Amino acid sequence: MESLRSCRDHLKQSHSRAKKLVETGLALDALFAGEETRLRRENEASRLRAVRRSIVEQLQWLRGIEASASAAHTEVNMMRSVVGLAVTAVVSTSKPLTAFVGRLFDRLNDREKPFGLVMVRVGPNGLPDDVGVVSISQLARQSDRPQPEIVSRLQEEGYLLFSGEAFQFLIDRLLDDVREGKLRLPVSRDELVEAAGADRQGLSLKVTRIE
User: Structural domain boundaries of the chain?
Assistant: First the structure.
């Protein structure tokens, strides 16, 4: 009888230890899962920060190119004007020829080219893999089309377009959502539209006024 009681007590103790081990194991699982989630969120936030740094660098680079191109275009127009004045002076004795040369150089000087409109474009595959910087002005110059038409064409092809400032603000919002577990990478195009849809602090997907 004593032996049976001793065996029962031993079983109770074993059961208690097993229960504690299970509870400890579950607690460790929860701890590891929480740490894994924290590390994943931090890794995704780090990827978004890397995207922002890369885009900022690309914006600065393209804006520099646009500034140089604008300066070169202005210099060429000035040279054309000087040459135009010289040619006009040479042929000034012929009124029809003088008028023709004047109209020719007027047309050359009036052909103003757009410069400086650089935007962030996000393609159908979303962030962080389908994002880059595009010079709307360069595309307009190359195609001899107005900038709003270039913007409309890109939007029709499925691209979201942001100013540099709006994109950085959007990334800040996404970072908050990722850290809070509300969002995971990759961020789809539709999720970006939803994140930007409230037009917070001037954030907008559409370019309504482009000179």
Answer: 2-63+114-202
